[in-house]
Design goal:
Blueprint lengths: L2 H14 L4 E7 L14 E4 L5 E3 L4 E5 L13 E7 L4 E12 L8 E8 L5 E7 L7 E6 L10 E8 L4 H6 L6 E14 L27 H23 L1
Antiparallel strand pairs: 1-11, 2-5, 3-4, 4-11, 5-10, 6-9, 6-11, 7-8, 7-10
């Protein structure tokens, strides 16, 4: 499958997802070839060229034919760390392709852990050797949600293929290429407590005290009565 078609497919998937999904981490590896991945990735390798940027993709390979690897002791691995605080429904999308020297028994794997904890396997695929690109969409599960920091690791396990492979023990570049890595998540809704209603004043009862007029009100009342008395006096005099 064409790499550009892979990129378009992944973008369509992200746009068609929930409206609340937001990118948490992404890397398209569009940078110059290098024996170091950079961009906050850490590497594990047996040879200085096993983990690299090659033709705008992440390359994980091994030429020493070690087998029975694990996430904590891989043939080659690239890891990134990210905070998932306030997020759930985490989905990791990426494109991958086998290196053409890979055999059916070689695998590309994906694992995660809470920072400092034990690795947990998420996904694995046999590699084979046709070099075609494929896509994968892997949910991280509820345990990875709302964490201060988690690690996500791509790693390979390559080895001899049967007796012939053992007898022909010669360096070969087996492994995988990875591209368009994107981690998305949904914001966890925050519960908002409405303010308490203000107390309603109780109606005054029959024996409730009446409001006492203020001094200014009494003065105005006195001036009004005095004026009324003056008008009556004038009427009598007339």
């Amino acid at each position: 499958m064409n790499k550009n078609a892979i990129a378009l497919g992944l973008a369509t998937l992200l746009l068609s997802g929930t409206a609340f999904a937001a990118p948490v981490f992404s890397d398209d590896f569009n940078r110059k070839n290098s024996n170091h991945v950079g961009a906050a990735w850490s590497e594990i390798e047996r040879n200085g060229k096993d983990v690299a940027i090659s033709n705008n993709a992440l390359q994980l390979r091994d030429v020493h034919q070690h087998s029975n690897s694990t996430a904590s002791s891989p043939d080659a691995a690239a890891t990134f760390s990210v905070s998932t605080l306030g997020l759930d429904n985490l989905l990791l999308s990426f494109a991958w392709a086998p290196l053409t020297a890979s055999e059916a028994g070689d695998t590309l794997n994906l694992s995660w852990r809470v920072a400092g904890g034990s690795w947990m396997d998420l996904w694995s695929t046999g590699l084979g050797g046709n070099g075609a690109w494929s896509t994968a969409n892997v949910g991280l599960g509820a345990a990875a949600a709302d964490q201060q920091s988690i690690d996500i690791r791509f790693w390979t396990d390559v080895g001899y293929s049967g007796l012939l492979g053992f007898l022909l023990d010669r360096p070969r570049s087996e492994g995988a290429r990875i591209d368009w890595v994107t981690l998305t998540g949904d914001a966890i809704p925050v519960a908002v407590t409405p303010p308490a209603p203000e107390p309603t004043p109780e109606p005054a009862g029959p024996g409730a005290a009446q409001a006492v007029p203020e001094p200014a009100s009494l003065a105005l009342l006195g001036l009004g009565l005095a004026g009324l008395g003056a008008m009556r006096c004038r009427q009598r005099a007339a």
